[in-house]
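Quick log. Single chain, no ligands specified.
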Amino acid sequence: MLSLLALTSSLFWGTSDFFAGLKSRTIAPPAVVAFSQGAALLALSVILLVRNTGFSPAFSGNGQWWAMAAGASGALGLVCFYTALASGTMGVVAPISSLGTLVPVLLGLLTGEHPSALAWAGMAVAVTGAALASGPELAGAVPPRPVILAAVAAACFGTALYCIDRGARYALLETLWGMRVTSVALFLLAGLALRSAGGTRARDLPVLAVIGLGDVTANGLFAFASSRGMVSVASVLGSLYPVATLFWARLLLGERLRRVQTIGVGLTLVGVVAIAL
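-> predicted structure:
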C-alpha cells in the first residue's frame, strides 16, 4: 500500500511538472512556482481550518524547521526545474532531475536505513543513464544550461524530499502547510522587491492553481508513504515522475530523443526501479 502511494505521487508530480514546464514558456518560471504554491497554501489552509483541531503540538518542536527547510529547497528546485523544462528537452531534463532521489537514499543510510546491493547497483545505473541522456548537451549540440539547471533541481528536490519525510513524522499536514508558507513568503518578498508578477495574467491563474494542487497532492502522498516506511524506498518510487512527464511530452508535443538519449533515459529509469526493488 505504501509503495502504491509513493508511485501515485510520481504520477501527480510528473503531470504537474509537464504542464508547469509548458506554462514557464509564456510566463516567468518563478511566477509559475509562486502562484501555484500560493494556490496550494490556500487549499491547505482551508483543510486545516475545516479540521479545526489546531496545529499538532509536535509541530512546535523540530517539525517547523523541517517544513521551512523543505519549503526553501523545494522552491529553489522548482524554479530551476521549470526553467530547464521551458528551455530544454523535457525527456532529458526530467530524468536528470529524478536523480535527486540519491540524497534521501544516502541520508536514510546515515540515519540507520540499509539499502540492498541491488539498490546500490541501481544508483550506478541511474547515474550512467543520466550521463548518457545529457551527452548531447555536454557535447555542445544543445546548450548545457538545461542540464545544469536540472542537476541543481535534483539536489534541491532530494533535500526537500528528506525534509518532508522528517517533518511528516511530526505532523503531515502542518509540514506541507509550513512548506508553502515559506516558499510563498520568499516569492512575495522577491515580487515586491522586483515590482513584478512575472507576466502572470488572470487567465493563467486556473492552470497555475491546478499545477499547485497536483504538486501538493504528490507531496502529501509521498509524505504519508515515507513517514510510515523507509524514506529511501519511498523517495525512489516518487522519483519515477519522469515517466509521466515523458508520456505527456510524447503525446502532446511529439518530442523525440536521439538514440543515445533514449538509452540514457531508459537506463535512468531502470536504475531508479532497481533502487526501489
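The CA atoms of residues 34 and 185 lie 9 Å apart.
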